[in-house]
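chain below, 241 aa
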Amino acid sequence: SDLGSIARGQIPFSPLAAYLLSVGDPARRGSIAMPDFGYQSPGLPGLGLEGGMPSGTMQAAGQACTLDEPVMDTIMRDLRSIGTKLKYVMLPRARMDKAHGLREWDLWGPLFLCLALGIMLSTQAENSEQAGLAFALVFVIVWVGSGVVTLNALLLRGQISFFQSVCVLGYCIFPLTIAAFCSLLLQIIWLKVIFVVVGFTWSTGASVGFMSELVPEDRKALGVYPVWLFYVAIAWMILIA
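prediction:
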């Protein structure tokens, strides 16, 4: 065998040969370390490996692991993210840069806005049956309507993510939600019309630019019209409430 050849001197002695002898000889095992051939395994980012050896921790590259984060910290971080996006929608910047600040999508904000709008419209109903109908109608129009608008953009070969589009359309109903709240406080018909018109204009201005940018140039009208119709339906519900 190779070990016998090394022992008899037929194979030149080397660090590798010494290591092989130590492996074959139980008495010498562990006394000679594996020779260093000049190669060191690089650390692997994101897996907690330094020099090729596992450290027992696993973190994503560039961000801390949040699995051990307290629940309250997670809730507060999500609430701050929602507040930042709502403030972004209300600023003219959203109209200028075509709602790029909403590209990191989430559905918590649209859900809260939908709940708030449904509750406000249901409180203005004459009886409990109409209140339930108004609340359900808000949910259907917001979620099914935003899904239909997104599907239309995808069928027009728009480069868009489904949930990202739903997020933008959902956050952009915030001006109409404010209009519904002001209309609930001030029961004056002409003020209600003004609030709804301003909210509708602001909502469409913030979302249309985002949708039109993702639809091919020759199909922009087909992509923008359903967005306009989506907010018209919500504005009309607030007016007749």
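The two ends are 94 Å apart (CA to CA). DSSP finds ten helices and two strands in the chain.
thats it, cya
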